[in-house]
Amino acid sequence: MAGVLARLNPAMTFIYVSGAGTDTSERGRTRWARVKGATENELLRLPFKAACMFRPALIVPLHGIKSKTRLYRVLYTALGPLPPLLYRAFPKYVTTTEQVGRAMIEVARDGPPQRVLENRDINNL
């Protein structure tokens, strides 16, 4: 699908939400990390004006947002007020839905400051 987009609109900025721990060597022990790494590598080879890989770690949902994944909903309920406290204490590992959204808008509007944005980079945009 991304190949079709690159062909039809090479002037676009493509943003892919990957995840912390992604393995772009494609040789690691964890399958999900290898698959995400292979996806990132393929996207970065496409002729987009810009392609940016977002790698958030823990995302704290704000403003009534609820995950569609049942396990995450249960975890957030069980953790109660802890995730917002973690966000303040560990910005390297925790972000919010609002931070991710704002960073995506900035990257789409102004272009990415770099091709891969780790959690801390997302929070700094």
Description:
The chain is α/β, with parallel strands linked by helices. The chain has one domain (2-120): NAD(P)-binding Rossmann-like Domain (Rossmann fold), CATH 3.40.50. Helix content is 48%, strand content 16%. It has a three-stranded parallel β-sheet with strand order 1-2-5, sandwiched between helices. The chain has a two-stranded parallel sheet with strand order 3-4. Helix 2 links the parallel strand 1 (13-17) and strand 2 (50-55). It is globular, with a radius of gyration of 16 Å. The two termini are 28 Å apart. The model has no long low-confidence stretch (mean pLDDT 93).
Extended strand count: 5
Average pLDDT confidence is 93
Largest sheet, if any? 3 strands, parallel
Strand order of the largest sheet: 1-2-5
CATH architecture: 3-Layer(aba) Sandwich
End-to-end Cα distance: 28 Å
C-alpha Rg (nearest Å): 16 Å
- Shape assignment: globular
In DSSP terms (H or I, runs of 4 or more residues), the helix count works out at 6
User: What's the CATH H-level homologous superfamily?
Assistant: NAD(P)-binding Rossmann-like Domain
Strand content: 15-25%
Poorly predicted runs are: none
Provide the structure class: alpha/beta
Secondary-structure element string: HEHEEHHEHEH
How many domains would you count in the coordinates? 1
Q: What's the helical proportion of residues?
A: 40-55%
Here the CATH topology equals: Rossmann fold
